[in-house]
Specification:
This protein is α/β, with parallel strands linked by helices and 253 residues long. 43% of the residues lie in helices and 22% in strands.
Length: 253
């Protein structure tokens, strides 16, 4: 039996294929104005017994494919727990939202908090800030690691923070210092969310922003538990969706 999970996010789409309980295929594509075109490309040549979707576009997928859905909270809980059985806390910083999820000792979702009302502290926030520095997003974290602490960004509103960055640069502040301050503001916001759901780890850091080395380093300094980053942090939700497909099929047999 083959099970497929697909996570349709605001910035990227991930697909994971499970066969006999093992991952056989993992694919990714950028989300565009036509996410179904990306989904069709990712699913091309993939046969499956059951397809489960999660993420922002999960409802859209069911209009075009024989699929059912699972919430992002459930998907990330299942995926993180599969990868790291001792996981008790999850931080997912994606393109448009941030999720802090606390799990019970059995892996059930105990409490969660989600920032999905604005782009503050998300991948989009970092993307806008990187553009203001004229630095590719994938290089922004490395650039910020060269900065010295002390500079602060007071606003978490993306628009106001961009103006604040521009003002700091105009006053002669070192660009690396300002970039570090941007990352510090993201991490502090995320840590505040984590503290409101739990302080017990280990903590799995997932989502595309987990690839940012500066965010990883700052997060490890701010929390009291171990921080674990999966090899493919953006695919945790898709993995969880595939695992849910396998669970549902098992309960029906």
């Amino acid at each position: 039996m083959t099970y497929v999970g697909i996570d349709i996010g605001s910035r990227s789409i991930e697909l994971v294929v499970l066969k006999d309980g093992c991952v056989t295929t993992s694919r990714r594509d950028d989300t565009t104005y036509d996410p179904m075109a990306q989904c069709r490309r990712l699913l091309d040549g993939v046969s499956y017994s059951r397809l489960i979707a999660t993420g922002y576009g999960r409802g859209l997928l069911t209009e075009h494919f024989p699929a059912t859905t699972i919430t992002e909270i459930q998907a990330y809980a299942l995926g993180a727990r599969k990868l790291f059985p001792d996981c008790r806390l999850i931080l997912d910083i994606g393109g448009q939202d941030t999720k802090a999820i606390a799990l019970s000792e059995h892996g059930d979702v105990r409490k969660f908090e989600m920032n999905d009302r604005c782009a503050a502290g998300t991948g989009k926030f970092l993307e806008v800030m990187a553009a203001s520095f004229q630095i590719p997003l994938e290089d922004f974290g490395v650039f910020a690691l060269e900065g010295r602490p002390g500079t602060t960004i007071s606003s978490m509103c993306t628009v106001f923070a961009e103006s604040e960055v521009t003002s700091l640069m105009a006053r002669g502040n070192c660009p690396e210092d300002v970039a570090l301050a941007v990352h510090v503001s993201v991490v502090r916001r995320s840590v505040s969310m984590l503290k409101r759901v739990s302080v017990a780890g280990p903590l799995v850091f997932a989502g595309g922003v987990a690839l940012n080395p500066c965010v990883r380093k700052l997060l490890a300094k701010e929390v009291t538990c171990d921080v674990i980053v999966p090899d493919e942090p953006a695919s945790v939700g898709a993995l969880g969706a595939a695992l849910y497909a396998m669970r549902v099929a098992g309960s029906e047999n």
